[in-house]
Amino acid sequence: MADLVEQEVYERWLQRKAVAHVRRDRNRGNLTATNQEYKIAIHKAVCESEGVDAYTGEKLDWTLLSQYDNEESKKDGRKYKKKFALLPSVDHVGDGTGAANFKICAWRTNDAKNDMSLNEFIQLCKLVVQRHS
After folding, report:
1. pTM of the complete model beyond 0.85
2. Burial class (CB in 10 A: 0-12, 13-18, 19+), 36
3. For the residues 72-76, what does the mean pLDDT come to?
4. Which residues, including other chains, have CB under 8 Å from residue 107's CB and lie 6 or more apart?
5. To 5 degrees, how large is the angle CA 55–CA 126–CA 92?
6. What letter would DSSP give residue 64?
7. Run of H or E including 48
8. What whole-number distance in Å separates Cα of residue 17 and Cα of residue 42?
9. Residue 49: CB partners within 8 Å, gap ≥ 6?
10. pLDDT confidence of 3, banded at 50, 70, 90?
11. Contact of 98 with 30, CB cutoff 8 Å
């Protein structure tokens, strides 16, 4: 991924993601969460991802980092958001109250999975496939 995005852009993304997840997890009661620990865990997840969505195997579009524009999104709605379906995002493995543990997946996948465990998400996906097979 390093060859797809400038180091400065990646580091800024990594910092923002760590801060956001620490804030969320502290609100959930994880008072031991630190920005440094989360940055390390997120970076590890990025390396382990090998550039693909951990759940679907789709190739992520790392060039989309830091490209999202809220004003454009407000103006074009779903059409705009759809362009960012493969934007890399950080997903918790667990509820965020334990040690930092993340997977990297597409924004679309993360949005669909929401706060479900992997097993809950798989069961939901099976129901959708079953219904439409």
Report:
1. yes
2. exposed
3. 92
4. 84, 85, 86, 87, 88, 89
5. 35
6. G
7. helix 35-49
8. 8
9. 60, 88, 103, 104
10. low
11. yes
Q: Is 52 left (phi over 0), alpha (psi -120 to 50) or beta?
A: beta
How many distinct helices (H) and strands (E) make up the chain?
5, 2
Amino acid identity, residue 122?
Answer: I
Which two three-digit tokens encode residue 5? Answer: 């995005």
Alpha-carbon distance values, 115 to 34, 94, 112 (Å):
21, 9, 9
Contact 21, 48 (CB under 8 A): no
Host H or E run for residue 88: strand 88-92
Instruction: Provide the token pair at 112.
Output: 């669909």
Distance CA 6, CA 38 (A): 21
Residue count of the chain, please give it: 133
Domain spans in the chain, listed from the N-terminal domain onward: 7-131
User: Where do we find the tokens 């524009």?
Assistant: 69
Q: How far apart are CA 125 and CA 77, in angstroms?
A: 25
So what's the pLDDT on residue 63?
95
The values of phi and psi at residue 102, to 5°, are: -135, 160
Whose tokens are 């890399």? That residue is 88
